[in-house]
Amino acid sequence: KTKMAERRKTKSKRKVNDDDKPTKEEYAVAKHLRFNLPKKEAKLVGMTVQYFIASKAVDMLMDSKWASGGKGTEVLFTDRRSIVYYLDSLLAKGLFHRAAKVDRKKDKDKKKKKIKESDREEEVDEEKKSKKEKKSKKKEKTEDKDKESEREDKADTEKEDEKKSEEKKEEKKEDDKKKKKEKKYKLAMHDEQTFVDGEEFYVWIYDPVPPKTFIIGLLLVLGAIAVCLFPLWPPEVRLGVYYLSLAAAGFVGVILGLCVVRFILFCLIWVCTFGGHHFWMLPNLTEDVGFFESFVPLYQYEYKGGDSEKDSKKSDKNTEKNKTAESKPEEKDIKDDIVKADDEKDESGSEKSGSDNSNGNGYEIIDKDDFEVDTEVADKESTVTA
């Protein structure tokens, strides 16, 4: 009786375990999501894990063959709700689990700062709007053409500022996107392990081996076995491998020899020309480029001599001196013309001032002889009266 009871218990356990295991269809759906959904990494309890977003998984299954019934498959999904129920069953069977994003102190502080900055910007914008309204009222009272042109100029400057601000915002958005891509979120286990259609995070537990890695690993194993069985190869194949190895070793030796030769040639030219000529043969040979690009161009030449620079400086100085010498006689001629013009102006001004004084103020210009005759006549008249 005890043996029969134990057998019944083991059968019931096997049935429960079989119910918990996913079916072939469920494995196929999970594999489709695992290899086709965009991969994103995060940290969960110090481990790097891969997660997906619920809404994107639902969108992918809505466009899959299980929703359209293509390629002779049964229709499993009719709407988004049916997909949510199906993915909830996969979660219960342990293919993935729900996770929650953990906000760090730095992120919280940044959010608070952003909120404060947004509030300040709103206040500043309101003040600017009030000032603009006051200015617009004043401008409406005194409408002039000049002010209209100024308004147009201001509008153009504001548009340019808006464009610049929009460009800066776009650059900031791009930088934020890059930072988000570079940064890894920190996740934690969610209390409610259910599938919800939305921006929820779900961490993959199901991690099958992709076919590419399987094939590559199989080829590596077969190659290692083939190398170990080299003594059993046919003699012709061993000869071919021997010649191939010699050709590869010769090619590597030629490249190393070219590196040494190009360095020696550069040093010789540099020493003979006292650092004036720089000549590199195959300059990209040791650079991080492709195989064919390392042999292009064939050479690179640069001249870094000091004589040409001195000659150019001397020629520049001579040209400057010639320019100054040419400009000096011209300056002298201009100065002479200015002095002559000033003299003519002074002469004409003095003549005009004399004529003005004689006519305007009632004075006449008297010669010396006339003045003496007048004085003699005056003396005679005085004696006669006496």
Count of DSSP-assigned helices: 11
Helix and strand element order: HHEEHHHEHHEEHHEEHH
SS-based class: alpha+beta
**Spatial strand arrangement across the major sheet:** 1-2-5-3-4
Mean pLDDT: 75
Largest sheet: 5 strands, mixed, barrel
Low-confidence stretches: 12-16, 328-332, 350-364
Number of strands: 7
| Overall 3D form | flat
Helix content: 55-70%
In whole angstroms, the N-to-C terminal distance is 192 Å
Query: Which band does the percent of strand residues land in?
Result: 5-15%
Descriptive notes:
The model is unreliable at 12-16, 328-332 and 350-364 (pLDDT under 50). 68% of the residues lie in helices and 10% in strands. The strands form two sheets. The chain has a five-stranded mixed barrel. Strands 6-7 form a two-stranded antiparallel ribbon. The protein has helices spanning 2-20, 24-36, 54-62, 65-68, 80-92, 105-141, 145-182, 211-228, 235-272, 307-360, 368-385; strands at residues 40-44, 47-53, 96-101, 185-189, 201-204, 277-281, 299-303. The protein is an alpha+beta fold and 386 residues long.
